[in-house]
Design a protein that fits this description.
Length: 340
Amino acid sequence: MAEKQINVGIRSIGCYVPQGIRDSAWIGAASGIPEPVIREKFGIRQVHKAGPEETVSSMGAEAARRCLGDFNPRDLDLVVYCGSEYKDYYLFNCAARVQYEIGAVNAAVFEIHNLCSAGVWSLKVLKSMMLQDPELKHVLLVSSSKEGDLINYRDSDSRFMFNFGDGAAAALLERDLDENVILESAMIADGQFAADVSVPGIGCRNFEGFRNMPWEDHFLRVLDVANMKERLDPITLGNFVSVIAKAADRSGFGRAHIDYLAPIFMKKSILLHLLDQFGLAEENTFVLEEYGHCQSADCFISLLEGARCGKLKAGDRAVLVSAGTGYTWAATGVQWGPVK
């Protein structure tokens, strides 16, 4: 008799977004871009904005509670944070804070950072760990972002970041769960873009001059937008397509049999292009126009909302896809629903 295959599945997903809202009219007024352009071209109806009392860790902890439901946090073996590097404090262990806030007293903690592709790639990392170590039965993955603080709407060079919204998501992974099974992943990395986007006012390269930095350098900035676009635009769509196809092929269902795409927030024109490459349409995804870009939480919000509205169904073969400045493009396949 063949030995049963051990899977790692997603037991539950939870998300939290703050009550504060920046709608397309607000962003248009703040940036000087006509509101219809923000709504139609950028694809933003609204983003959520956290209040000063809400932190990256507190939003992540709330998403974790919603994810866990009646699952006892004392039964968690590991809590992993994979969200924004702009956290409550500089050099701060957000995973440890979330572990404390939710009462996961028996869980180890660590963090995975790869900017906006960290969530998708973390599924590969944690699946591998859980398959190798039978004692890792329940792992909580948390992503949270308050990067709305870092956007300077008067800087037209950073307009591709005007879609940033605040919020958090969490996923409970379970060893030997034959449901919502995590399959295989793919990544493309191109380090020539590593220094193109940053908060240039903070870091060891400029420690001595930190106090004298201009205020603009304390926001996320694109240092040379024309140069970055010249290098990035010709390759980014192709890299998205490539990692989606590779993840689907490695997952065993193939690029011709994707049922649902769970992407990071992107312009609708780019999203529709990606869908078309795989014979999909808008009903095969969830458009994050009411959330904006919540860093690496996006794909988990897409899975949660897609399942809620009936777009993501049991038996569907889904691919999560993200890109992170630096630049990386990553995708992971998931077999949704019970595996027969």
